[in-house]
Design brief:
single chain; alpha/beta; Rossmann fold; 2 domains; eight-stranded mixed sheet; 18 strands; 30% helix; binds nicotinamide-adenine-dinucleotide; AASS; Lys1
């Protein structure tokens, strides 16, 4: 029997998400009879303690007899229990300076640590994450920004609504003018954003039609890296070539920027890839985009107007392409930018349901099949007070040398 603990989130501002919803946990115990689950008492979770109790789970303040503790965001050092196995997002694998102490403490406390971000399949692709929900909330927030900027409709903030169904219901009440909407990215975020566009019955059109036809209704196109980049030598190679040799490519995004009114950015931006649009591009008379929902949210990166991230409390700011500075987004000169970097927090219940399903499918089996597919082996960052081989590159960071 392995005892899993669903821990309380302790970050500020509070994060209402959880690895398993009550419903998700109920499914997990049926599927894995050798697993038992204890839920930590929490008054900030998107699901009440009573809902877990109603499904037959114990809620406790003491998690010390669990074997494996499951959380979402960073656990404060003072709350880490020594010699346990832990799963959470530690934000350490890119040597983030603000979490160095946390990784040091994980090692000092002899914790066997698995980061949700390091859970990958044999091909190295991540199998769990919140990206899909970021896409859903990001697209919704983008429409909310569009309504505010053009003063033609008002949508409530996503975090005041219960779930995805409620978001879609609000969107069904608005009339979107005959604009062109561009979505970059066909991964998790892209699929979430597309789900919203499709739920709104916005017509998807081909790239050719998007670029050259006019419509009397709103339309969208979803594009990937080879649609907005081209090899400098004119050769047509595949996406893998782009991922491996981004320096051989240049952006062709301006052909889209010319005709797009509202841009939803949901791509991943790799090191060395060309800027999607530069500050100079944004100043060009051909640049038509007035609203950007930047879900990818790389600061000072490929999307020049994203000069900072924004918050759930204050999600929209304006970018003046002429002065390259922030201004009121309602100023007619401004490109309105929504760049919230923790979007899934606005939809905690659905995001938790989805995350639990992925965790149950891709991680839990490994505990009961002797890690046959190597899931735990690949994801394990620390053991017995040491970094594992795969994560040995973090040694200098942990030692405070970088
Ligand atoms: N704002 C938020 O709250 C939030 C939440 C989750 C994810 N994100 C961000 O959204 C972005 C997309 O995440 P995702 O989960 O959809 O990623 P994904 O791997 O599922 O999809 C990536 C997409 O980007 C394209 N791409 C372009 N260049 C690439 C490259 N060099 N390497 C890999 N893919 C490349 C891929 O072809 C694919 O269409 C990430 O940057 C992620 O950090 C933001």
């Amino acid at each position: 029997m392995i005892k899993f603990g669903i821990i309380k989130e302790r970050k500020n501002p509070p994060d209402h998400r959880v690895v398993f919803s009550p419903e998700g946990l109920a499914k997990a115990v049926v599927k894995f009879p050798e697993a038992s689950f204890l839920v930590e008492n929490s008054d900030i979770r998107g699901f009440k303690n009573e809902t877990y109790i109603d499904k037959g789970f114990e809620v406790s303040n003491d998690m010390s007899d669990c074997d494996v503790l499951l959380g979402v965001k960073e656990v404060p050092i003072s709350a880490l229990i020594s010699n346990k196995k832990y799963f959470f997002f530690s934000h350490t694998i890119k040597k983030q300076p603000y979490n160095r102490d946390l990784l040091q403490a994980i090692l000092d406390k002899q914790i066997e640590f698995f980061d949700h971000e390091t859970i990958v399949n044999q091909k190295g692709f991540r199998t769990i994450g919140f990206g899909h929900y970021a896409g859903i909330v990001g697209a919704y927030n983008g429409f909310r920004t569009l309504g505010l900027k053009n003063s033609n409709f008002e949508l409530p903030k996503a975090d005041t609504l219960l779930d995805q169904k409620a978001l879609v219901s609000e969107l069904s009440k608005i009339t979107v003018p005959a604009i062109k909407i561009l979505l970059t990215g066909k991964g998790r975020v892209g699929s979430g954003a597309k789900e919203i566009l499709d739920a709104m019955d916005i017509r998807e059109v081909s790239i050719e039609d998007y670029l050259y036809k006019t419509y009397d209704q709103p339309v969208y196109a979803q594009i990937d890296a080879l649609d907005y980049n081209a090899r400098k030598d004119g050769k047509n190679l595949d996406l893998t070539d782009f991922y491996q040799h981004p320096e051989d490519y240049k952006s062709t995004f301006m052909r889209f920027a010319k005709v797009t009114d509202f841009y939803i950015a949901g791509h991943f931006f790799g090191d060395g890839a060309p800027c999607i649009y530069t500050r100079e591009d944004a100043r060009s008379k051909d640049f038509n985009i007035k609203v950007v929902a930047d879900i990818s949210c790389d600061i000072d990166g490929p999307i020049a107007s994203t000069i900072r991230s924004s918050t759930i409390e204050d999600p929209v700011y304006g970018y003046d392409p002429v002065t390259e500075t922030e201004i009121d987004f309602m100023n007619p000169k401004a490109i309105a930018v929504m760049a919230v970097d923790n979007l899934p927090c606005e939809l905690p219940r659905d995001a938790s349901e989805g995350f639990g399903e992925m965790f149950m499918k891709n991680v839990l089996p490994a505990f009961f099949n002797n890690d046959a597919d190597g899931v735990l082996e690949r994801a394990r960052m620390t053991k017995d007070g040491k970094l594992t081989e795969r994560f040995a590159y973090l040694q200098d960071y942990v030692d405070g040398k970088e």
